[in-house]
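User:
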Amino acid sequence: MAHPARAKVGHLLLCLVLTAVLLVACDDADRDLGASGNPQPTPTAGDSRIIGLVGTLSGLGTWRGEDAFEGADVSIGDLNRRLDGEEVPFELVSLDDEGDPDRAVELVERLAESPRTVGIVYGGPPEALPRAEEALAEAGIPAILCYGDLYGARQLSAHIFQMSPSYLWQGRTLARYIAADRGYRTVGLMAEDSPDGRTATASLRQEMRRAGLKLRRTVAYDPAAEQFRGDIKALREAQVEALVVHGGPSVVATILADLRTMGIRYTGTDDARVASAPPRQRRRRSNSRYWRPQVMALDLAISDETDQSIPVGMVASDTYARGVHYLPVPSFERFKTSFDDWWGVLPTGWELRAYDSIQALGWATKHASEGDDLAEVLETLDGKRFGGLPVRFGADDHTAVDEATVGLWTLPPITPDAPDTPTLEWVPLARGFSIDGRRTTVLPEDWRYLFRNPPPKSAPAPRISTMNFGVTSPRRDPIR
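Assistant: Predicted structure:
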């Protein structure tokens, strides 16, 4: 079923392409709050403080711009509601980069030229943003990346920040699971043929090596392709036991569908083994076309677009804030209520990252003095919660995500009386949020919302088996 907000965005973008002017259908009260319900390419007020959104709202990868806009639009309204009567309101100006890195740079630079712009939320091709550093520095404003990994690429700079978890931390979580939990030895990777895909490949290679695993085969695929069977055949020849996929939700869904139609199906850990199988079984499988890998993925695979394609036992990495639509953490619930009140649907995409980016920019503006570089002010944000997990930027890394909050998500067990199956089918794999496989790495301040009989914050972390949500099966589970 189509996402109502996304259908609305798509319709309005068609109008934008045809007329180059976007008509805003909102009442005066909504306009006063800065949220429009529609992407506006120009400000509507003469004295507002502008927060820019540059994202892919048309062309390949539109999920980036759509999710970013939906989260940002809600956030602008919430930000303005908290202003006192003397403060100048914020306004969201949304520009479509059409998936073109060069155009994305031009749009960021255009926004930076305005003295009214206080910051930029970025949902476009990740590799483009570093090229705008000079314009951002001259304006003294920050830009926050919502999707992709510039930290892992070592391309964050003085005015560029990141809201998404690094592929290094995701790779570390996946490598720990592959090596220690499942006991596999070989890994294959399908990554998008792009700078971001190359960052994912380098990060995964580093973390697999650290875990003593062999990244036996990597494939760089064309994200514009309609099917990926040729790429999958190359990985089948390598008989990798774990197959990790990097890419946007629609591409991952297609890859999963191709695996299914090719008859490549995971049925359990022992059946996935080739290099790690007992000697006689290893020889027999190695000399055949046998291949039943366990499929794994990076964060962007966790989507309602992949829900219908998720194979049994699939896992993917992201922070536990990915469950903002159903986990009962107070900051999550505030965001979910706000989002539902505005859009009439639950947030099941990556809207939270843009929401928190807007809130962080508003915080920096509030705490700045006249003439301050807002990027330097943003560096002092230290653990404040907006809609998700604590946001902490420092001068050294410019990333908001605490590595310990990154874990694994999976498909829930199929049981008729499952009490916690959310709208989005993906749920936390409890031991994926654990270093030792026994105690959780979930932040102490959230234990009481997610675990049974949680200990005090100063005590050892609760056991993963006491988590109230998701999958809490032990390592001996042959599927997960």
